[in-house]
């Protein structure tokens, strides 16, 4: 199978990290969003939404949306709880990541780390800080109670949230304000087969 993505994107890195932890074999197809790689006719045939990552199975079936791909690839693994309520909690955190976390932390990171906070994006950048800190506080509260987001062991919830959280400083977020998040980051980085995010 093939995964199309940008290694600097947290949404794409999630899949690389998961595949490494679960020892999943795949072919990585590197795309450059800024170069228009996701707007080509050939890519839009695979995903009309023009977004990465996408998974293309050997039989040609295509799956998009990072957390949907995570759940598909991790099916049957210990990263998805057997208990229905805990499994729903994983989904709760994944929805939280896409709606309350990524729109602030990932966008702030893009504006600062890749664009250098240009004048025409400064107001937007500053507006992302409060939302990002709110999301980090929610995570900190949970991690004061449990070592991982859904209890005592790592799940897909942690992989989903780790991707952009561990590089949040690149968006201007000082993680020293969140000691439990920093401990959680170290726990994930200590996992067997942990794969760091690639740098260009």
Automatic annotation (TrEMBL):
Keyword annotations: Transferase
Alphabetical list of Pfam families matching this protein: GST_C, GST_N_2
GO molecular function: transferase activity
Record bears the keyword Transferase: yes
Record bears the keyword Nuclease: no
Record-annotated GST C-terminal domain positions: 83-200
UniProt domain GST N-terminal: residue ranges: 1-81
The organism's place on the tree of life at top rank: Bacteria
Name recorded for this polypeptide: Glutathione S-transferase family protein
Source organism (scientific name): Leptospira jelokensis
């Amino acid at each position: 199978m093939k995964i199309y993505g940008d290694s600097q994107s947290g949404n794409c890195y999630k899949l690389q990290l998961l595949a490494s932890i679960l020892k999943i074999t795949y072919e990585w197809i590197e795309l450059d969003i800024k170069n228009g790689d996701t707007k080509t006719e050939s890519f839009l045939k695979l995903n009309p939404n023009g977004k990465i990552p996408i998974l293309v199975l050997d039989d040609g079936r295509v799956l998009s949306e990072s957390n949907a791909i995570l759940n598909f690839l991790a099916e049957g693994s210990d990263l998805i709880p057997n208990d229905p309520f805990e499994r729903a909690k994983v989904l709760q955190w994944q929805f939280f990541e896409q709606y309350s976390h990524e729109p602030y932390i990932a966008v702030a990171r893009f504006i600062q780390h890749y664009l250098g906070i240009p004048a025409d994006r400064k107001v937007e950048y500053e507006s992302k800080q409060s939302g990002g800190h709110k999301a980090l506080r929610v995570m900190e509260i949970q991690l004061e109670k449990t070592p991982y987001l859904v209890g005592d062991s790592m799940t897909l919830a942690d992989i989903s949230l780790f991707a952009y959280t561990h590089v949040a400083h690149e968006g201007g977020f000082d993680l020293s304000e969140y000691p439990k998040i920093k401990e959680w980051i170290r726990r994930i980085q200590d996992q067997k087969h942990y794969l760091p995010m690639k740098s260009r």
